[in-house]
Amino acid sequence: MAGGIYDQVGSLELRQMDRGERVEKKVDIYESIDALRVQETEDTDTVHTLPAVRRRGRRCSRLTAVCLGLLCVLLLITILIYMYSERASFISYITNLPEEKDQLNISLHDLANERDQLNISLHDLANERDQLNTSLQNLANERDQLNISLQNLANERDQLNISLQNLANERDQLNISLQNLANERDQLNISLQNLANEKDQLNINLQNLANKRDQLNINLQNLANERDQLNINLQNLTEEKLTLQRKYDHLLQQIEKNICFHEWKEFGSSFYFFSTEQKTWSESRQHCRVTGADLVIINSRDEQVFLIDQNKSTRFWIGLTKIKSKGQNQWMWVDNQLLSDE
Question: pTM above 0.70?
Fold first, then answer.
């Protein structure tokens, strides 16, 4: 039993420990057994002489045997634990072997794929090499064709040089004719320049006449506008004359009818009546027109000052109203004249 245990210990120690440590542990165990045997021999020798010492020795031998048994049990337990841990490591190693095998198979498969890819690439390179050889042969044929064409072009060049010499002779003749034509052209240019100068002078005269015509048209338009304005002023003056004549006739009639003329106030050549009745602008104008007059039209600053001085404490209507003309609001007198800034 002990020999089998020690053999197992030795086999386990061979995998995990070096050979020196294993020998050292075996020596320690055998030394402990030899010491135990010597002690038992001494105890046996002393049995015949000393009974008391013999009983004491038996106790010691029993105690030693018990201790040795305990040590053996502990050693066995230690060996079992160590074997169990080694077994777990070995099982783990065995378990990992399929995974490593799978990894190796995968790597082998990848290498096989790479080998196939390399073979395909090699085949493609071989095809490209054949294509390049074919292209090279075609280029060689084209080179031969180009050499033939080059020889033909050289022959044509010689022919063209001969033709060029002939053309050079013709060119010299044409240059002489061209020189003569250039002299004639210069004469024509001089004549053309003279005609251009005359044309420019005529254009200037024509422009001056056009400017004078435009100026005359502008003057004519201004005169027409002035004429229209004078006609308008004449018409306004005629209407004012008729209005004044009507007022004058009406005043004469009022005088003849013995109206209270002392209520009218005179300023310049006009008479002004200030009513004390409260009326609207339309009612006031209607009342004035019934009496043969109209709302006052202020023609000067002096007339405006006169009217303000007459009625400083009260307000009165004047002959000015707001109308809408050309999309804008404007002021107009009752004689249809627009209010001006003058």
Answer: no
| Geometric angle at alpha carbon 225, from 223 and 230, rounded to 5° | 90
Are 10 and 2 a contacting pair, CB within 8 Å? Answer: no
Q: Quick: pLDDT tens for 7-59.
A: 444 444 444 444 444 434 444 444 444 554 545 555 555 444 445 556 666 77
Whether the CB-CB separation of 202 and 194 falls below 8 Å is answered with no
